[in-house]
Request: fold
Amino acid sequence: MFSNLAEKLQNTLRQLRGKGKLNEKDVDTAMREIRLALLEADVNFKVVKDFVSAVRDRAVGQEVMNSLTPGQQVVKIVNEEMTRLMGEKKSSLSSSSKGPTPIMIVGLQGSGKTTSAVKLAAHLKKSGGRNPLLVAADIYRPGAVKQLRVLSESVELNFYSNEEVNPVQICQEGLRLAQKEGYDPVIFDTAGRLHIDEEMMSEIKAVKKAVHPEEVLLVVDAMTGQDAVNAATSFNEAVGLSGVILTKLDGDTRGGAALSVRAVTGCPVKFVGVGEKIDDLEPFHPDRMASRILGMGDVLSLIEKAEATVDKEKAKELEEKLRKQQFTLDDFKDQLGQLKNLGSMEDILNMIPGGGGLPKEVKQMALDESNFTRVEAIISSMTRQERHNPAVLNSSRRRRIASGSGTTVQDVNRLLNQFSQMQKMFKQMSSMDKKGALKKFKKGKKGFPF
Reply:
């Protein structure tokens, strides 16, 4: 996500951090690099101009030049201005005071509109305990209604359509059904076109007039850069948008759409699609995104992702096993599976402060997800006795495991050595916990043994 932009900005700011003092020439050189990085990322030219001007004005002021760490102050300013550019804080969805909340999903064909409608419904059901209804109002694109029905059923969401009537009537009927059955919100997947045209806009206006939506959300493909911003501008002028959903952000190495759409249209980015799975839709946090772009990490999002993914019962069970020093290779494999559920290793690494700025060799080694597959294959090739008591693994057993998992004896030995080190660490922590040392550490007291 934004890898090209992030790398260039981080390199530029790293050079500033290393300077004991800054002068205007240093700031101007850095601003030139930042301007080029943003333009190459397909950020709107006017947005780049205003952003660089705002950063420079603050960077050559007294707060920076007279500070003890001027380089760090400039990084702080860039972070604040980038956050402001993307909307400052998370923009939540509005809700109707009475009855179901109508939400219109609009956009061009190919932007991921129908999938985003289902992702949004699933997100609201899972995180907010809502009972959404999806209404298929795209009767023109072949297979659109079936696609929405199949996706809805795959995640047990309520669905409605009626291909015998026009889209406006479908939406009116869907709203009445939601009112009658107590569904909330009701999400209308409206028709898209290959390009913006009058007929398309007229239909969307008619639907909007008929259902009075609380939210009109435009779905745009982040990878199209300025085309996404232009589409947002056209839709906003024609029907009035309340927000934007940016899809395919996980594949966007540039970042032009995310950094431009709020400043150009005034419409906040409310959600971002970060993968192909139904769960891969996240609320957009401008401050967290700015931190990730600048290599400062995004610990809050990582914690939220872990809380939503990790099985709490298994976590309690694991804690008990660690206390009793009963952690086995089965548990190790289970933890790897839960880690994989958090998303790609690159994503996780970029959420950890400084993780994105690791040396390339270290990063490549950390991002090699084939290591996970190799470890899982080795553990799966062991018998139950071997997984629970690795001490029985003599040389012939190790050769058998290597052969069964398609790995080498060296791979098996490496895994067993790592597991042995982990067990020693857990044993030491358990011993400290019994002595109360961990409790002292948690309370911020001195004397922590390591």
Q: What stands out?
A: DSSP finds 22 helices and eight strands in the chain. The chain has a mean pLDDT of 82. The first helix runs from residue 3 to 17. Residues 102 and 212 are 7 Å apart (CA to CA).
